[in-house]
Amino acid sequence: MQRGAARAGDEGEGGAEEAAQGAQAAKRTNPAKEAKKQEKRAQKQAEQEAQQQKLEKASEKAVKYSERQREREAERLRREEEDEKAREEKQKQEKEEMDKWKETFSVEKEGEDDGTLGEGVVEQFVDYVKLRKVVNLEDLAAEFRMRTVHAIKRLEEWQTRTFEWHLR
Q1: pLDDT tens column, 52-65
Q2: Among positive and negative, which fits the CA dihedral 114, 118, 121, 123?
Q3: Is 117:144 a contact under the CB 8 Å cutoff?
Q4: Same domain, residue pair 51 and 100
Q5: Measured between alpha carbons, how far is 20 from 26 in angstroms, rounded to an integer?
Q6: Per the record, which residues fall in region Disordered (predicted)?
């Protein structure tokens, strides 16, 4: 048994030697493969670095773009505030100027009559309507300086008088 064990021990040592020799042989026979692997690894590493640089550039561009957008928005808001202030200032100045002008004017009479017409004016009123045949009530009232309501009443009165006169 000792001999078998010794042989097994010798074979074990020989197996390790064979494995080492196999590895050395693999190293000797694969330098081209190993060089290709190294080349592929280097190429892959370069592609990854290039991709990383692209991502970093894109990220930088996005950051710059968002900063420009914020600056533009801030500028727009600033301009809007300035415009609003200018508009308010202009309104304030216009109001002050209007108040100054109001003080210089005084209203003594309004532009409307009380609705009563003199005898000669009644004839003019009737002639105005007859001449034009179709009359805008606001224009009629403005022509004779009366309210539209009063002009309508005058027309109704004239119409009833005319109707009654024809019935006689």
Answers
A1: 999 999 999 999 99
A2: positive
A3: yes
A4: yes
A5: 10
A6: 1-116
The 10 Å Cβ neighbour count of residue 94 is: 10
CATH number assigned to the domain comprising residue 143: 1.10.10
Q: Which of 81, 104, 127 is the last residue of a domain?
A: 104
Instruction: In whole angstroms, give the CA distance from residue 50 to residue 28.
Output: 34
**Rounded CA separation 164/157 (Å):** 11
What pLDDT digit, counting tens, does each position of 93-117 carry? Answer: 999 998 888 877 766 655 544 445 5
Per the domain annotation, does 112 fall within a domain? no
For residue 6, report the phi and psi dihedrals to the nearest 5 degrees.
-70, -40
| Domain shared by 49 and 97, yes or no | yes
Residue 93 belongs to domain spanning: 34-104
Query: What does the DSSP 8-state code read for residue 155?
Result: H
> Which of 145, 148, 121, 119 has the alpha carbon at shortest distance from 136?
148
> Tokens standing for 23?
């590895």
